[in-house]
Amino acid sequence: MPESSSPLSVLITGAAGGLGRVIATTFLEKGANVAICDVNKERLAETSDLWSTKYPGKFIAQHADVSSLPEMEAFVQAIVAQFGRLDLLINNAAILDKFESAGTCSLELWDRVLGVNITGAFICSKVAIHQMLAQSPPGGSIINLGSNASVCGTDGGLAYTVSKHGVLALTRNTAAYYLDKGITCTMVQLGGLAHTNIQDSMAHGFDKEGIALINKHMGGFEYGVNDVPLEDVANFCVFLSDKEMAKTMNGAAVPFNRNWPAGH
Ligand SMILES: NC(=O)c1ccc[n+]([C@@H]2O[C@H](COP(=O)([O-])OP(=O)(O)OC[C@H]3O[C@@H](n4cnc5c(N)ncnc54)[C@H](O)[C@@H]3O)[C@@H](O)[C@H]2O)c1
């Protein structure tokens, strides 16, 4: 992380567990001020307990839903009240679908997945950009966590795939519109991760035909062999938090997937 007189102020969504918590802890270790939100109260409490003795005064862990504009506005206000500004937003919060297709995905699941994964990322970007433009000095950066599903048609069911393709569009559009306003936007296109909670979404069943199709098209994934280490993603986000690096990479969608699926 670049040396600066004041610590970087970072907001990571959906970071009470999984990848988000590893990224957040890495930024705390580097001396940043870190704000996380999540909708899982138990994991938020567990994370606060974990951090409270090691990083007192350096973090905020608050219940806030990324798909609610008023909740995210209030959260960013709380961040600015405590840390003075917002330098970096990492759009991490997401939910998986049940590997269903256009014919089988319910409207309810479609709305829920798009509501969190793409409307949520839009809302957080909107609120962060307003703050980044208003603060002095102005500016900041956004990192969107995309997926192989941002570019492949068969790395998830329809709703997740559409949402993650949307994250790529959000990245490119934001990067272009804010190029001259001191705000950058990049996407990390992740492969498979181990030790996260993303499969919670499938706790009440999933489409076996959909999973079989994905395995057929995306074969070769093995936990412990080609899953992407969470710490590597976290360190890459720290690398991207360098303003000059983020400017050069503005608009980029970087594959970060251990070359899985090979050849895509
Ligand atoms: N797990 C994988 O294999 C994988 C692969 C590619 C990309 N990704 C992406 O990486 C990111 C992190 O995923 P993960 O595997 O750590 O998942 P995870 O389920 O462990 O973490 C996501 C967090 O988001 C939270 N969340 C859900 N809805 C929310 C809402 N409305 N508001 C705020 N928080 C909310 C969840 O409670 C959870 O803590 C996601 O963007 C995901 O799409 C994951």
Automatic annotation (TrEMBL):
| One GO biological process term | fatty acid biosynthetic process
Q: Which UniProt keywords apply?
A: NADP
Q: Which CDD domains match?
A: SDR_c
Molecular function as annotated in GO:
oxidoreductase activity, acting on the CH-OH group of donors, NAD or NADP as acceptor; quinone binding
* InterPro entries, sorted: NAD(P)-bd_dom_sf (IPR036291), Sc_DH/Rdtase_CS (IPR020904), SDR_fam (IPR002347)
Which family does the similarity line name? Answer: Belongs to the short-chain dehydrogenases/reductases (SDR) family.
Spell out the PANTHER family in the cross-references.
3-KETOACYL-ACYL CARRIER PROTEIN REDUCTASE-RELATED, SHORT-CHAIN DEHYDROGENASES/REDUCTASES FAMILY MEMBER
Protein's name in the database: Uncharacterized protein
